[in-house]
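Bumping my old thread because nobody answered last time. Still need a sequence for this structure:
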């Protein structure tokens, strides 16, 4: 989520301090979020999204190619009653 915040902030051309001001948060908190040291609460995530004028989905949806897909080798059998 931190990378998504950073990417959205940079697309706006904003500094961490400016985003913090717009969202009513501290610049240090924004920096820690972007580094992945903290995960924002839903309330904080909504404030950040409001400041950036983006949907919450942008923060919680993994970017293309960032999450490897895992293949399962276990076959599932139908349950019989």
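Sorry it took so long. Here it is:
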């Amino acid at each position: 989520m931190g990378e998504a915040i950073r990417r959205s902030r940079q697309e706006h051309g904003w500094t961490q301090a400016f985003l913090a001001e717009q969202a009513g948060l501290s610049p240090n908190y924004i920096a820690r979020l972007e580094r992945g040291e903290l995960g924002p609460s839903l309330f904080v995530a909504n404030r950040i999204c409001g400041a950036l004028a983006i949907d919450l989905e942008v923060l919680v949806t993994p970017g293309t190619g960032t999450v490897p897909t895992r293949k399962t080798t276990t076959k599932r059998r139908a349950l019989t009653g």
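The CA atoms of residues 45 and 69 lie 26 Å apart. Let me know if any region looks off to you.
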